[in-house]
Amino acid sequence: MQNKNKILIIEDDEVLQSSLYEIISMSGYEAIIAKDGTGGYNLAIREQPFLILLDLNLPHMYGLTILEKIRTECGTWGRDVAIIIITNQDPDNKILDSLEKYKPSYYLLKSNLNLADLMSNIKLCEK
Amino acid sequence: MDNLELLRAVILLVGWPLLIVGALYIFYNAYNFYKAVNSTPIAKLVPIFAITTIITMISLGLVSTYYMMSDLEDGVRHVLPIFIIWFVLMMLILIYSHRMDKKALRYNDLLIALDRSKSDFITISSHQLRTPLSGIKWITELLLANKIIIETSEIKEKINNIHHSTDKMLALISNLLYIVKLDTGKMVIHKTEFDIVHTLTSIINQLTPNSEKNNQTIKLINNISQEVLIKSDKTLIEEIIKNITSNAINHGSKNSEIKVTLGMDEGKKNHLEISINNQGEVIDKHRMTNMFERYSREEATGSIGEVGGLGLYIARSFARLINARIEVCSDNISGTTFKIKLH
């Protein structure tokens, strides 16, 4: 059962993690945090949030692997859950193929991203 | 056929092909050398030297042939030493140049490897720098959302400055990464359908804080419709427009208006045109040709730090990748206008 108010942050950098946690909590959502890929994937299955903020370069499991596993191995929730990729990696062909296949809601570059814009994107996913 | 006639036949049969190969070899090397030094004063001397040498060689061949044909005994006797010297010299040049080519190839491989290391270093360090800088940027945003700080204008201004500087540094890092990708041919083009009006509005919103520092306003004039869908690489188009608008902000007069106009190309009616106009100093022809060069001083003047002299170079390189064209016109009356013609 998808948790309508819960957002999972999978991010290994502590400063970015706490900034995301703060802005999401301030906006009235319940934020949960995972610091690595495997932990993030397990937490996603257990908590079934309505949205996942997913970094790509994560310890233990690469972000695109998490995206693929959620879309293909987690039933209806996995197919429907909104996933926003926030990374500092410019998309190459391999990433573009994966985006085409597993359709995250957004692919955002952290360096270009304002927290206010991120919240607007999250609001759009809610609809 | 006596010995002298046989000797003459050998000289002619070996000498002429060798002379032609030598002339071609000089021509080929002179051409390569000319290409390598064509921006230096020495370049003018290269064709003169090559043509003079080739004409001297052929003349010597013709005179020797005529001499041997008209007077067999004296001709062969005088031409033979010249022919031997010429033959040995040609062989030495060919052997030496073959060794040099091998050496040059080795150096070339080494240079390619060094260049790759340089690109990798820039790419890795830029990616590593992006994360902590994003952290600083987000923290300043959170601080600016804090009520206590908003009420203290001095602190607010300082945090705003940190935010602005971090944004500039992130833009500079992005530009460095784009340069590496352009140099290594790793720029990925990904076409999607998107609304260009929405893109323009979003870029204007992003750049408005920069223009406000100069008391400038950015106005969007849409001559088409509320929504204009195009299929192209969104990131590349965004970067082209962003870099040119930033340039207009940096070079535009204070208290002026920057106009971003979306319309159809007057020459080709079914093609879109985005023009970005600013009032300010007129750009002369010399500056117009230089401004799209990498690390252009023309561009960097007055805008250093914003784009580091890379913005217009990146804009033009990206435009080429998506078959778009950038035209510039500048005069006292209508100011400076950059036209981006999307095909």
DSSP, total strands of chain B: 7
Strand arrangement, largest sheet of chain A?
2-1-3-4-5
Low-confidence stretches of chain A: none
**Overall pLDDT of chain B:** 86
Q: What kind of oligomer do you see?
A: heterodimer
Large-scale geometry of chain A:
globular
Largest sheet of chain B: 5 strands, mixed
Strand content of chain A: 15-25%
Helix content of chain A: 40-55%
Task: Give a quick precis of the structure.
The complex is a heterodimer of chains A (about 130) and B (about 350). With about 130 residues, chain A is α/β, with parallel strands linked by helices.
Structure commentary:
The complex is a heterodimer of chains A (127) and B (343). With 127 residues, chain A is an alpha/beta fold. Helix content of chain A is 50%, strand content 23%. Chain A has helices spanning 14-26, 37-47, 63-73, 75-80, 93-102, 115-126, and strands at 3-10, 30-34, 49-54, 82-87, 106-109. In chain A, strands 2-1-3-4-5 form a five-stranded parallel beta sheet. In chain A, helix 1 links the parallel strand 1 (3-10) and strand 2. In chain A, helix 2 (37-47) packs parallel to helix 3. The model of chain A has no long low-confidence stretch (mean pLDDT 93). By secondary structure, chain B is an alpha+beta fold. Helix content of chain B is 66%, strand content 13%. Chain B has helices at 3-37, 45-70, 72-144, 147-151, 153-184, 196-213, 234-251, 285-290, 297-300, 311-321, and strands at 191-195, 217-222, 229-233, 257-264, 272-278, 325-331, 335-342. In chain B, the strands form two sheets. In chain B, strands 2-4-5-7-6 form a five-stranded mixed beta sheet, with helices on one face. Chain B has a two-stranded antiparallel ribbon with strand order 1-3. Chain B starts with a helix and ends with a strand. The model of chain B is unreliable at 300-307 (pLDDT under 50). At the A-B interface, helix 1 of A face helix 3 and helix 5 of B.
